[in-house]
């Protein structure tokens, strides 16, 4: 079985990094009531990489927003690093589908926006930004503006910005969904390396079965709306993963086929 990296980030708490218990979410309007999530219980240990897979509209993104404190559950509770989530959290990094960079700021200044908003020490933040740019292959592009970067490079900037304050938990909402297949594979490999090197706990929402298996230490499968966890499947692959090797591994094939069968039948069993 895959083991989490034994780093500082992976050992900041003796309890779960993320825990959700009996969560449900309902959205109400004057005309209707929508049940987005029901009976969600999930425990994520420090240093785990959990892929969340399910049909469109099943509430995957809402799940991340609950952990971030951006959505309040209707019933149940969520905790982050041992503390109940009751408001927006500063212990996380959050990456969305779009990089959402400021067009008038270069790469380094976009990354350092995180430091400005949090009031971090400027010199330390600058050193951390330089380290992250080197880690993600952005060295030499410090002053490039977003329109001068490819989509993949923009998401690397977004990743650096999210990791600048060294959050113990990183939430990722379909961050590579709009990228071409080759760029996506490259960034998947880089993300695996960064996860191993930092020990950050990661929750990834994706519609890609291959991505979910390649990156995850386990895959949480959600049903169609109202979303609930129907299976939790461990990923029996080594922590360090090379794309070509994983794609040729029979363990990958077995798990991907099982997930494909579940999602093809509506993930309701």
TrEMBL record:
Pfam families: ABC_tran (PF00005). Residues 18-251 form the ABC transporter domain. InterPro entries: AAA+_ATPase, ABC_transporter-like_ATP-bd, ABC_transporter-like_CS, ABC_transporter_ATP-bind, P-loop_NTPase. It comes from the Bacteria. GO terms for molecular function: ATP binding; ATP hydrolysis activity. The keyword Oxidoreductase does not apply. Keywords: ATP-binding, Nucleotide-binding, Transport. PANTHER family: ALIPHATIC SULFONATES IMPORT ATP-BINDING PROTEIN SSUB, TAURINE IMPORT ATP-BINDING PROTEIN-RELATED. This is NitT/TauT family transport system ATP-binding protein. It comes from Micromonospora pattaloongensis. The lineage of its organism: Bacteria, Bacillati, Actinomycetota, Actinomycetes, Micromonosporales.
């Amino acid at each position: 079985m895959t083991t989490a990296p034994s780093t500082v980030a992976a050992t900041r708490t003796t309890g779960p990094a993320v825990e959700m218990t009996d969560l449900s979410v309902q959205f109400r309007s004057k005309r209707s009531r929508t049940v987005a999530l029901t009976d969600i219980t999930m425990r994520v240990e420090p240093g785990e990489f959990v892929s969340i897979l399910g049909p469109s509209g099943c509430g995957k993104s809402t799940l991340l927003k609950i952990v971030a404190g951006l959505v309040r559950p209707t019933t149940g509770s969520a905790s982050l690093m041992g503390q109940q989530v009751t408001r927006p959290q500063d212990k996380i990094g959050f990456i969305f589908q779009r990089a959402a960079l400021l067009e008038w700021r270069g790469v380094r200044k976009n990354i350092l926006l995180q430091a400005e908003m949090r009031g971090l020490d400027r010199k330390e933040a600058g050193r951390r930004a330089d380290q992250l740019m080197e880690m993600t292959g952005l060295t030499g592009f410090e002053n490039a503006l977003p329109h001068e970067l490819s989509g993949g490079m923009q998401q690397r900037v977004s990743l650096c910005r999210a990791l600048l304050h060294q959050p113990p938990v990183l939430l990722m909402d379909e961050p590579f969904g709009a990228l071409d297949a080759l760029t996506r594979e490259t960034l998947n490999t880089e993300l695996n390396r960064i996860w191993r090197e930092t020990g950050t706990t990661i929750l990834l929402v994706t519609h890609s079965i291959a991505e979910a298996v390649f990156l995850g230490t386990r895959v949480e499968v959600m049903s169609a709306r109202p979303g609930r966890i129907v299976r939790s499947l461990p990923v029996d692959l080594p922590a360090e993963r090379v794309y070509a090797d994983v794609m040729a591994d029979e363990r990958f094939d077995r798990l991907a086929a099982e997930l494909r069968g579940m999602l093809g039948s509506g993930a309701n069993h």
